[in-house]
Amino acid sequence: MFRRQVLALGSLLGAVTLGGWTLFKHKDKPALLLSARDDGDGKHYAVGYRLDGTRVFATRVGQRCHDIVNHPSQPVALFVARRPGTESYLIDLRDGTLLQTITSLPNRHFYGHAVIHRSGEWLYTTENDTSDPGRGLLGVYRFEGERLVHSGEIPTHGIGPHQVSWMPDGETLVVANGGIRTEAESRVEMNLDAMEPSLVLMQRDGTLLSKETLPQAMNSVRHLGIASDGTIVSGQQFMGDAHESSELVAIKRPGQPFKAFPVSEQQLQAMGHYTASVAVNSDLRLVALTAPRGNRFFIWDLDSGEVRLDAPLPDCAGVGAVADGFVVTSGQGRCRYYDCRQAQPVVKPLDLPAGLWDNHLHLA
Predict the structure, then answer these.
(1) Architecture of domain 2-341+348-363
(2) Could you tell me the pTM of the whole model?
């Protein structure tokens, strides 16, 4: 039944063409852009748009969401609460029906990110243990039909976990532990003088495989992009003094240590100590990153580190890979598509609503 539903969803969305370019997440799969978005009155929505600008749904939700993860076989996605939210929302991708509101357990809150196992049975969310502020957990939830039931939790071997992703084997988890302690219902940092950010690889049962750090303790590891060969790229948020420079982009290649990605000092300064979203296009061997505080969007060659694009983009927010490049949303301006098949990426504005997009998008 779920396979028939997915096929029906694909027929509904169809192929999207824009100026001769066909926009897909993968070459044979039409893309539906999912994101959290506010309106002018500050109300929160979970939205789904075709890349030609057609709105599939805009479902009002009670709390602001951050990232989104879709089920591998059912036409549903979870819109995950932004830290320190306590509600995440399971949405039907066909019409935006709110199927379930998932509430975090007592003394827990969500950190904005989640993943679903390829079997479609298990979901893992990054969470904070507010009885021991900052102790990182993955909340474990099980799908029972089109509902999620809390099943347990496992440690992330660090403080303040933000994004969690899968390695290409579909079994190993990557966790960006931000290293910052926060209390319940608060975004106030408690331990800036004793931060413990880390990049963790772990098994699904919680077994620690590796834990690595960057040289600067105040450089919070936040967001992840994973290539098909297992290369991990992370984006950081530096919590130190404004005059200092920090490694805001880092990389872990297979079999190699976690270290700074070769970004110029000029580019690091332009980021304003803050990165928001990372995406890897494995087919093109490119990595893209948004820096909304600096109003800059970057694309680099994943292997050589060569700069492919360094462009102004007001309040650039989410970025996601499509077959021939990247799609980017903006908190203030137009959403854009970057065709990266040539040495110099070509930009095209998308006919999507301008502004008020959250820092992440997901292409289902």
Answers:
(1) 7 Propeller (2.130)
(2) 0.91
